[in-house]
Write a structure and sequence with these properties.
By secondary structure, the protein is of the alpha/beta class. Helix content is 45%, strand content 19%. A seven-stranded antiparallel β-sheet has the order 1-5-6-7-2-3-4, covered by helices on one side. The chain has a seven-stranded mixed β-sheet with strand order 10-9-11-12-8-13-16, with helices on both faces. Strands 14-15 form a two-stranded antiparallel sheet. Strand 11, helix 12 and strand 12 (420-426) form a beta-alpha-beta unit. Helix 11 runs parallel beside helix 12 (404-414).
Amino acid sequence: MSAGGVFMRSLVIVWLALFGFGLVIAPELAWAAEFPRGEGFYFSVPKMLAVLAYFLVWLFCCGWVDADAQELDLERLTWTGMTIAGGVVGLWLFWLMPRFFIGYVLALTLLAVPVFSYLLGRDAQVDPVQRVLTSRQFKRLLQKVFRIDLGVPDEPPKAKPVRIHFLPIGEERPQRNRRLQKARAQRGYRTLQMLLEEAYRRRANGIRVEIGSAGGMVHYQVDGLPHAAVVLGPGRADGLVRVCLTLAQLNWPANGQRVRGDFPCQIERQRYRVRVSFDRQELRSHLTLRLYAETHRVPALRELGFAPVVVQQLQRILSGQRGLLIICGPEDSGRTQLAYTLLQAAHQRGLQATSVEWPCDVHLEGIRWVPAEPQANERFPAALKRVLGEVNADVVLAGDLDSRELFSVACQRAAKLDLLLIGTITADDAVQGLQKLFELGLTPAGFARLLTGVLAVRLVRTLCPACKVKFKPNPELLRRANLPAERVQFLYRSPERTANQDGVVSCISCQDLGYRGRMPIVELLLPTDELRELVKTRPTPAVLREAALRSGMRPFSTEALRLALEGHTSLMEVASYLQ
């Protein structure tokens, strides 16, 4: 039991003891012959019951304010102390007043002031759905007390609590325990727990908080799209940032600076690595939390939904080709997971597969992990070069190669042509990825000798299987998608739903988003004789794309349209790829 709970329990026991004395012992003393008597009317059962009712209301208010402030990560000790002090001062003034009615009203007023002050303060710092002093909440209360129907749905039941444990690493146990205790003592600790709980329920893999002078707005990244959800008051937003920095062992940055770090946590039975990025600006700062699940399984290559020809081309690369395979895509496009899927496919074909990523959140059975962790006074490119020189495998994942220095290290190792080295870069499509390789230092000769392919990947949202709607598309929609009307009988889309302000969802599977999960679509650019000759002339992106399409590259639009026709996604979701 918490210290607040012990205090409230002790207060109840003491007060009930005094009340029992007043109700039972005092009348006996008053009836005794030796009791000094005055004018009488000192003891009144109705007045005693009124005082008992006041005490019970005061007790309820203290307990509710204490629990609510703790739940919402507000200034718990301040508000609970003010509520207790208001009741004590009210009782003291009540005993001093010669008139019972005036003293009783004064005591109720002194109790109501801190309680309503807390309600006004909490409503200013929480999401509108959580506010108490609203007409909707009053109507719900009237419906519940007087059993009348005012047209307001009942409050949805509270979700089952999610177990969260923070596990900061990088220190010895005593220091780690002190850091955890410091984080728990800070105001934003419960706010961080609440955000991670909600992210877990929403299946969100990212949380972004925009922080200004008026507080913070929380956005959850669900299936690649942000969803505004919670409003934080200035104190809660500042406390949230400080707790995240404490767990990630980061210092408070100066204006205009950004700090990055990470800390592990466990949500239910799944371990995550939470990567923290805090960009502090004078007017508006941004806190970003990215959740990476530490997993021991990735989908098999044939489970990703690729076209059979693309699967065959990737298997051919993994079977015997040596050199450099680049996987590109924007942030949160599934590059790393696709890379580990290829490592797993290589392992299943009897090849030795190794990852040298640092840090690494994916640990697969049969895949060796040799971390390229920098040693004392060693930079990461030097550590990557050292580890790549020592590793002995058929297929190696080198991780992010977005800098010129890292890409040069990878090219030097791949030039030995004794392994297939897989790396990732940031680019929107395969042609843009190839151009970025030239910017990083790849020469036409290196393209012809080293590069085995450029694999671009994007993620599209898949329709929720529980609530997706089958419909017959109109000819105009098919014409804009370049689809023959006579060959398409029906398509699928998400259901149309009206805005719901009560928090009640009609589809538990997708939380009324209409989509659940994502599927990858890919472009695989393979070097051909035509492309090898063309890159010597430094062609424009349009010319390079035309040549890649002639060489057999299936563009994103073809793959996106195939998923829509198979009912995995909607035309609206893939419309940007069809333009």
